[in-house]
Amino acid sequence: MDNKIKAALINLDKSNIWHPFTQMSDWLNDDPNSPLIIDKAKGSYLYDVDGKKYLDGVSSLWVTLLGHRNPKIDRAIKKQIDEVSHTTFLGLTHKPAIDLSEKLLKILPDNLKKIFYSDNGSTAVEVALKMTYQYWQFKNEKRSFFLSLKNAYHGDTIGAVSVGGADLFHSRFRYLLFKSYFAMSPYCYRCAHRKKEIEFPVNAENFRDHNMQMGCQGQCIKEVETILAENNKEIAAAVIEPLNQAASGMIIMPKGYLREYANLCKRYGILLICDEVATGFGRTGKMFAVEHEDVKPDFICLSKGITGGYMPLAVTAVTNEIYNAFLGKYEEFKTFFHGHSYTANPLACAAANAVLDTLQQDEILQKLQPKIKHLKKELALLSKHDKVGNIRHCGVMVGIEIVEDKKTGKPYDCKLKTGAKICADIRKREVLIRNLGDTLVLFLHLTMTNREISKIISAVKIELDNL
After folding, report:
1. Is there a contact between 382 and 400 (Cβ–Cβ < 8 Å)?
2. 3-state SS class at 68
3. What gap in Å lies between CA 288 and CA 279, rounded to an integer?
4. Residue 201: cis peptide before it, omega within 30 degrees of 0
5. Do 315 and 286 share a structural domain?
6. Residue 242 pLDDT greater than 80, yes or no
């Protein structure tokens, strides 16, 4: 692209646009040529307006499940455009949504029987919260509180923020929020109950080993039990990101924790909402994270990878127990009064149908297993680096926590913006990743090759060497 045109575009961006999760003073004062203007994409790569390609190491914020410009998804959307691009879902229906519901219910846990559509991860969670609250009203029980985990992130709408436990994102809005209980996060590396003599990283194979290594006697799950035991009559539901608190730096739960959490909910009669917006559709190595520990929640929330990154779409899947509570006569007003203009958009549903067909027909999850092993091997080598405090890995999701002192786990001063600088510098190596503080985040396409995986890890190592 001509330099003058490029400069003009960058200037217009800086003059007109407010970017999400971005300190705009940094954006405005950055190198005038540094913002990447993405022009094209193909497979695992994004291309800027100058034709330079970048390996997309975060799936464009965790959504491009099968890479960019997947031929099957392209064809499905183009075909749907020739039929109908949008119609309201209030009082009408259409085939793409009907087909998608059938496909989803075949692969979701078998206790989930109904699909409610919305348009993003936050709204999928918001739907579950509102359904739960209304459900207990129909049961003549006043339950208006929720249980979540510290470090949790469930989206940016007010209800989702109310059950969010990431202070960086949520603390400023606390006076707008409804009350929730928050239990300790199973953040092994920074566990407040760890014994000082334990070296890093801690790689517990299961929940019991985790407790022994960390010297915490299961305090994280005990706190969940204490909250439920003392407040179960006022708690409407417990919300959890199964296996991975992704937006807090890829905090991977020890094996067995999710199962224990679900068992406690069942014991105390608490509905369970599993937020699989980040973990769904193969990111953990299985179709859904709950499958790893045979958990069957009352709600599963889905979005992000459901359309392969093509269109906004979300799903809240529920049991018949929840659905049936809303059935009644018109004049009883038991209807779930919630919806969105773009609910079940036909183009989005067509894309999602193509994604599910591709996952099955191309045996994507079966082919993914050797790639996960390759990634694990590469990460094991990287974990030895003296600037790597902890690597947290589940499926194709990775958090690499960078520290100033490996032995003590001492973090860098946040003013140094170490993680952000690494992500900026790594672009020179034609790789795009993101940071959450000083945790480097990798979120790989299911179709990424071993060679591409190795290139990302190699680029990270080079930048760590330069610290």
Report:
1. yes
2. strand
3. 7
4. yes
5. yes
6. yes
Residue-range definition of the domain harbouring residue 163: 75-361
The reply to whether 246 and 372 lie within a common domain is no
pLDDT band, very low/low/confident/very high, at 201 (cuts 50, 70, 90): very low
Instruction: Please list, residue by residue across 421-445, b when 16 or more beta carbons sit within 10 angstroms of its beta carbon and e when fewer do.
Output: ebbeebbebebbbbbbbbbbbbbbb
Mean pLDDT in residue range 210-237:
81
Q: What are the distances in angstroms from CA 154 to CA 34, 39, 63, 326, 332?
A: 31, 31, 16, 25, 32
User: Structure tokens of 26?
Assistant: 């940094």
Domain shared by 309 and 423, yes or no: no
CB 189 within 8 A of CB 198: no
Q: What is the pLDDT of residues 398-417, one digit of tens each?
A: 999 999 999 989 999 999 99
CATH number of the domain residue 103 falls in: 3.40.640.10
Q: Determine the Cα–Cα distance for residues 68 and 73; give it in Å rounded to an integer.
A: 10
**Pseudo-torsion of CA 339, 345, 350, 355, nearest 10°?**
-50
Tell me how far the alpha carbon of residue 458 is from its chain's centroid. 25
> Is the bond preceding 109 in cis, omega lying within 30 degrees of 0?
no
**Under 8 Å between Cβ of 142 and 337:** no
**CB contact at 8 A, 163 and 177:** no
Q: What is the pLDDT of residue 422?
A: 97
Is residue 256, in this structure, part of any structural domain at all? yes
